[in-house]
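Re-run with default settings, no changes from the original entry. Doing this only to confirm the output is reproducible before filing.
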Amino acid sequence: MRCRVVVQLISLVIIILIAWILITTHPFDNYLTADDIFANSAPKIKCDLLKDCPVGTFAVRVKSGAHTVVGPSICFDGQIVMSHISNNVGPGFNIVVVNGVTGAVDKFGYLNSKDGRPEEILTYLKEIEPGRIVLLATFDDVTKKLTDEIRDVLEGMGSTLIKTLKSRDNWVFAGVAGHNLSPFEKISVNEPKNNTYGDWPEVVEISGCFPKTV
């Protein structure tokens, strides 16, 4: 009996010694944590596109608002400039203006379609310098302050759908001030029998690689 106890004690001492050697020669600081694994994983593609954009283009993703509840989202070159989470969106045309060469964001905000004045919205759009990239996403009903002059200015930025925009339609667009015809545009039409959110249509978005305005 005594012999067995001695053997067990010796075995325990050996185990403790082995553990101590492992700890002192391989400290836990050298082990990878979950954060280390994710930090060393492949870099995230800008604006969650399916692949990286080629040189000479910017990654773009523009999503409209949903009903009057969830605001739109505008991502440019990997930066989410406007979103519901950032609490910097509002009813109307949510807009981001970007330097088409450097990719620097000049300004952003929303052109209020509830309390704003149509002439102020028109002035804002007209003051955008030619060659600037313009990203737009609607939230709520933008047609309340949408005049024919405003439609003309947006059409001059490359929109082919702005003249058809009706009450409660969702619309997203990316174009260039002073340029014509942009393929970066979609509309979700308000059709009561087909709407996703009762009196409001489904969310609509565009994404892709937008060329620099060199």
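The beta strands are 57-63, 73-76, 79-82, 92-98, 105-112, 133-139, 170-176, 185-188, 205-211. The first helix runs from residue 2 to 25.
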